[in-house]
Amino acid sequence: MFSQVFQSVSGINNYGLISTVIFFVFFTVMGLYAFTVKKEDLSEFSRMPFEDETKDSNEV
Amino acid sequence: MENQNFYYDNKTVKFFAYATLFWGVIGMVVGLLLALQFIWPQLTFGIPYTTFGRIRPIHTNAVIFAFVGNGMFTGIYYSLQRLCKARMFSDILSKIHFWGWQLIIVAAALTFAFGFTTGKEYAELEWPIDILVAVIWIVFGWNMIGTIIKRRTRHIYVAIWFYLATFVTVAVLHVANSIEIPVTFFKSYIVYAGVQDALVQWWYGHNAVAFFLTTPFLGLMYYYLPKAANRPIYSYRLSIVHFWALIFLYIWAGPHHLIYSALPNWAQSLGVVFSVMLIAPSWGGMVNGLLTLRGAWDKVREDPVLKFMVVAVTAYGMSTFEGPMMSTKTVNAISHFTDWTVGHAHIGALGWNGFMTFAVLYWLIPRIFRTNLYSKKMANTHFWIGTLGIIFYAVPLYWGAITQFLMWKEFTAEGFLKYPNFLETVTQLRPMYAARAIGGGLYIVGVVMGVYNLILTIRQGDFLAEEAASAPALEPVSGKRAAGEGAHRWLERRPVQFTIFALLAILIGGIIEIVPLYLIKTNIPTIASVKPYTPLELQGRDIYVREGCYTCHSQEVRPFRSETERYGQYSKAGEYVYDHPFQWGSKRNGPDLSREGVVNGKQYKPNSWHYNHMLNPQKLNAQSIMPVYKWLIADDLDMSTTAKKIRVMQMLGVPYPAGFDKTANDVLLQQASLISADLKTQGIDCAPNKEIIAVIAYLQRLGVDIHSAGLSAASASENPVK
Fold first, then answer.
1. B491: which chain A residues are within 8 Å (Cβ-Cβ)?
2. Cystine design at B63: which of B27, B79, B348, B627 (Cβ 3.0–4.6 Å)?
3. Quick check: A48 and B266 CB within 8 A?
4. Are A60 and B226 inside 8 Å of each other by CB?
5. Are B411 and B546 members of one domain?
6. Rounded distance, CA B660 to CA B647, Å?
7. Looking at the partner chain, which of A34, A37, A48 has a beta carbon nearest the beta carbon of B83?
8. Which pLDDT score is estimated for B644?
9. If we measure between CA atoms, which residue out of B579, B623, B609 comes closest to residue B195?
């Protein structure tokens, strides 16, 4: 079935345009999300690599 | 919640670190041997196991999957436990992962040396090892996701997002690009053919760069760079956009390896568009890394770890600018098949992956061995020698590439190719190849110093196998979204769902690009005159694949006047429909061979020439850098596999008549006798059952079907782009 559907697709050259639109929608949604995250939360997340210090690790 | 005591597993980290150092030296030394073979082709020592075509996959696989792979696992096993505040999910899975991965590497090295290869770049492993790779990769993913599930932190840090995307995408790529039908235990045919195989292969090949060499190292950057600089990542906000944009875009870019090929134009265009867009997230990551050092640049002056990281991130930025640039049709028209590609790849490999790996090792090994780095001075010397090595490696290759494309494309005032003999361009490049070998040699000297420094650090240290830690248990919360909790915030605490979303993001690009190529018949126009290979030609083709001829010779004439004048008609999709696998290659150290068999064609040579060329290339052309293949003349062709090969080809849709497998060897011997008799007329005594006869038969078949279609070279050159 899919084979027949795809064979009848005209304008396959528009794939580039369609794909670009898909990406920009995706990118915009992610961008909007990123800018709605609270600053305090971001600050907390970005400090996560520093929360792993254990009593046995020592500085070089 | 109560505080829980637990231990981090440093033993697995240590094992992966040792393996990184060991395989790093091996892989790079093999690379140096390859570089020296460009200057002294006799460095193959006249034996099959050290020829360029066989050891080139050993080099690429050793540095990618053994050195960088083990380095990546070292960094992940250390950082994942600490970011999750949890020990690895299972010690047994960690052990299976480590030893299984080393077994794969040893198996790869041995099988490549013996000529067992699928003939697909960076995916050369034969089917039993492919299955082992899939199993061990799942073990790694299981162990990683299990650790994330039992973590003691609510939020999953961005580095882990990159690790998860790496796991899921590499699994998809590896499986999709390795669907093969076995012929024997060490021989299989890929189910895809020609153009379709090329698209799947470079979808895999490019994304092996993306999801094996890039995303895991970005994850490492997001953990180790802040640790080394002692300040949080510059913008966590940027890292969120960086992650999703990068994994979504990268997967589409594969077709940029096939520009001006027989791949349908719409697929090429997608590859170009998405490659150019990739600059944005790639540079987003680079900027995020470099700006993390804001206010800490004084530390870079002192700290070798930061020095390595800065150059690594800068090299990442350089190669992710250069890659999209090389993907544009204008630049690709001149850069493809030249040493530019090799230079570009090594900026990424030596700078980004090599330096980031050593930065992680220099940071991590003193910590798990509870000591200081043995010699900061030696590490700084390693850094400077390595940096010089990268420059000495890349600059001659860029210079060589310019020389190559200018010479390949130059015409005389009368309209003839100025350098019609391909060898003239090779001869011109030999000083550049010598300089490249010096650059590579310098880089290895640096690596050996680094290994020595780390061994002395280990010897003076006191290894902490079980590192005590404590953290409060994670309070259980609903798996559903809490009131006011955004969809992405929910995803950031749900590793399985996160992995599924990452999978969807990478699948979109793959499906849109690859599926139509299989479903729309007009994408691969068939050519009536193109027939399946004869049994002898098929056996010859398999020897061509075994010897890795595709590592130096392309089989793809691009639609440029400079190419059609040199080789003959440009390549069409329909001429590759029986090629399992495709053999287009990616670099021309020797001329294109796709029109080799066209009698009176531009590249045609008689049977006796091929025989003598394989026996001693330098006797025919003193300046040739082709290795000798004298064992092809001595060794008998294995005809016991012919019938099975024909049956597998029939399964793949190659239209051999029913029952042809039973008579295939008779047909083979008939054709072989003709070639043997022809050689005899030239004074060469060669029995029909020798491997060389099959190779000659295959080479003499190349381009013949297209020529017989009545498309003359003159008419084919009506449509060249330039």
1. none
2. B27
3. no
4. no
5. no
6. 8
7. A48
8. 97
9. B579
Q: Are the Cβ atoms of B468 and A30 closer than 8 angstroms?
A: no
Q: What is the mean pLDDT of residues B220-233?
A: 96
Nearest C-alpha in A relative to B278: A23
Q: Please indicate, yes or no, if residue B170 is contained in any of the structural domains.
A: yes
Look at residue B83 and tell me if it is in a domain.
yes
| Number of Cβ atoms within 10 Å of the Cβ of B420 | 11
| B277, B371, B464: residue with CB nearest A56 | B464
The answer to whether the peptide bond before residue B581 is cis (omega within 30 degrees of 0) is: yes
- Find the largest Cα–Cα distance for chain B: 90
Give CA–CA dist B615/B93, Å, rounded. Answer: 50
Number of domains in chain B: 2
Domain match, B468 and B567 both: no
Contact B286, B318 (CB under 8 A): no
User: What's the CATH number where B698 sits?
Assistant: 1.10.760.10
* CATH for B185: 1.20.210.10
State the burial class of residue B159 (Cβ atoms within 10 Å of its Cβ: 0-12, 13-18, 19+): buried
DSSP state of B252: T
Q: Is residue B520 part of a domain?
A: no
Between CA B367 and CA B372 the distance in angstroms is: 8
B229 with B260, same domain: the answer is yes
B341 and B429 fall within a common domain: yes
Rounded mean pLDDT, A22-27: 80
For B80, B89, B223, B355, the CA distances from B160, given in Å and listed in that order, are 7, 15, 9, 21
Rounded distance, CA B468 to CA B87, Å?
A: 10
Measure the CA–CA gap between B387 and B442, rounded to whole angstroms. 9
Looking at the fold, whether B544 and B508 belong to one and the same domain comes out as: no
Pick from A30, A33, A56: CB nearest B245: A30
- Are B498 and B565 within one domain? no
Q: Measured between CA atoms, how close is B235 to chain A, in angstroms?
A: 8
Give me the domain span that covers residue B542.
Answer: 535-716
| B253 phi and psi angles, rounded to 5 deg | -80, -10
Q: What is the pLDDT of residue B714?
A: 37
Statement to judge: residues B26 and B64 lie in one domain:
yes
Q: How far apart are alpha carbons B535 and B532 in whole angstroms?
A: 9
Q: Do B551 and B469 have their domain in common?
A: no
The amino acid present at B355, given as its one-letter code, is F
ipTM of predicted assembly, 2 dp: 0.80
Look at residue A60 in the predicted model and tell me its pLDDT. Answer: 31
Flag whether B519 is in a domain: no
Residue B487: closest C-alpha in chain A: A33
Q: Which residues contact B659 (CB under 8 A, 6 or more apart)?
A: none
CA dist., res. B73 & res. B18, Å (int): 11
Is the C-alpha dihedral spanning B91, B92, B93, B99 positive or negative?
positive
pTM above 0.90, yes or no: yes
C-alpha–C-alpha distance, residues A21 and A27, integer Å: 10
Helix B194-208 and helix B495-519: axis angle, to 10°? 150
Assess contact for B471 and A57: CB atoms under 8 A: no
* pLDDT range class, residue A55, cuts 50, 70, 90: very low
CA B138 to mean position of chain CA atoms: 21
Cα–Cα distances in angstroms (integers) from residue B201 to residues B121, B176, B412, B476, in the given order: 8, 9, 38, 44
CB B75 within 8 A of CB B223: yes
